[in-house]
UniProtKB/TrEMBL annotation:
Its cofactor is Fe(2+). GO terms for cellular component: cytoplasm. This is TauD-domain-containing protein. GO terms for molecular function: 2-oxoglutarate-dependent dioxygenase activity; metal ion binding. PANTHER family: ALPHA-KETOGLUTARATE-DEPENDENT SULFONATE DIOXYGENASE. Transmembrane segments: none annotated. It holds the Pfam family TauD. Signal peptide: none annotated. Belongs to the TfdA dioxygenase family.
Length: 376
């Protein structure tokens, strides 16, 4: 008689919310229970106070209703492809790699006209990710920064992160001074790479997205970006054809559970959405893979083993594709703008001196993902 299937209990010694294991991977703890206000406002023996205390995270119990559909207007369609408004004051424009990313000096994002913003949307869609140096973004009133971001779409309010007081539309990436939770994480993980596109579980995930540095370590904490349009083009035509028409379930449940398990907030009840595995960019017309291991859960209509097999192949393809990836090194005054529709990214947890890493993200939502017919 064949042995029956047995559910093996998890070892009691491992706190899975603490270690970051499971479907949702978080490399360090960030929530009301781990936040140390004195260390952030006054500094510690080894670390200075936060440079931007107005951007320190706050949490409250306010609940938000489910997001309603809205009609997104894509400003990149109105752009002058010569970028005469966006780059007229640029002193240096360098490609990060031969196929992904750029770095720009001399352009002040806060001074762009609407025509310049239209061109920004197109430029970022083409380059996938652009690092703008020496920006005044962090020094603006938060409401002014939000006004700039709001040009590109409806602001997304993150369901589990802390935000600056009075500005829940700002998503904060915050690892506090002398934070040591990474030690717990690396007890159960060999690396901190967490490829994802932001909040793909929403019906209308983000497009043009802004992330700007407030505080950071002297070295480390870089962000990796992968070009998911080029990742799609690297596949054979027959494989591309097989991917078209497939739909993928994206889930917020694991992120919400993780927040609850560590004493955090859940502002809005978690949702799942179904998106095409291959999506089309509304301006460039490029097709791109639209999957990520943080939020993609299953291919609709496939059995679990079949879905896992194909998704894991694509995740592996994305992770190994260093020839369609770029790495952004943060520096004071840096604003990184990328298109979440055609990229995936991952922060790196590779510094151990307890330095604070504090960034702010403005996340305008875009159109619901769609695909156009396969073109062999």
């Amino acid at each position: 008689m064949a042995p029956a299937l047995v559910e093996v209990p998890l070892p009691e010694a491992i706190n899975y919310a603490k270690s970051g294991t499971g479907a949702y991977k978080e490399a360090f703890q960030s929530g009301p229970k781990s936040f140390r206000a004195d260390a952030e406002l006054k500094g510690t023996e080894k670390q200075p106070p936060a440079k931007y205390p107005n951007y320190l995270p706050t949490w409250n119990d306010k609940k938000y209703p489910p997001l309603e559909p809205f009609e997104h207007y894509e400003h990149g369609k109105d752009a002058d492809a010569s970028f005469s408004n966006l780059l007229k004051d640029a002193t240096k424009v360098d490609d990060l790699t031969a196929n992904t990313g750029a770095e720009v000096h001399g352009v002040q994002l806060s001074k762009l006209t609407d025509a310049g913003k239209d061109e920004l949307a197109l430029f970022v869609a083409q380059k996938k990710v652009v690092a703008f140096r020496d920006q005044d973004f962090a020094d603006l009133p938060i409401s002014d920064a939000l006004k700039i971001g709001g040009y590109f779409g409806r602001h997304h309010i993150h369901p589990t992160s802390g935000g600056p007081d009075g500005h829940p539309e700002v998503h904060l990436v915050h690892r506090g001074a002398d934070d040591t939770t990474s030690r717990d994480f690396f007890e159960e993980r060999t690396n901190s790479v967490t490829w994802h596109s932001d909040v793909t579980y929403e019906k209308q995930p983000p497009g043009t997205t802004f992330l700007y540095l407030l505080d950071g370590p002297a070295a480390g904490g870089d962000t990796l970006f992968a070009n998911q349009a080029l990742a799609y083009r690297r596949l054979s035509p027959e494989f591309q054809k097989r991917l078209h028409g497939l739909k993928v379930v994206h889930s917020a449940v694991e992120q919400a559970d993780n927040s609850r398990n560590r004493g955090g907030i859940v502002r809005r009840e978690p949702v799942t959405s179904i998106h095409p595995l291959v999506r089309t960019h509304p301006v460039t017309g490029e097709k791109a893979l639209f999957i990520n291991p943080q939020f993609s859960r299953r291919i609709l209509g496939y059995k679990k083993e079949e879905s896992d097999y194909l998704l894991n192949f694509l995740y592996d393809h994305l992770a190994k594709g260093q020839d369609f990836q770029a790495r952004v090194k943060w520096a004071p005054g840096t604003v990184v703008v990328w298109d979440n529709r055609v990229t995936a990214h991952s922060a790196l947890l590779d510094w151990e001196d307890g330095a604070r890493r504090h960034l702010a993200r403005i996340t305008p939502q875009a159109e619901a993902p769609y695909e156009t017919p396969f073109e062999g």
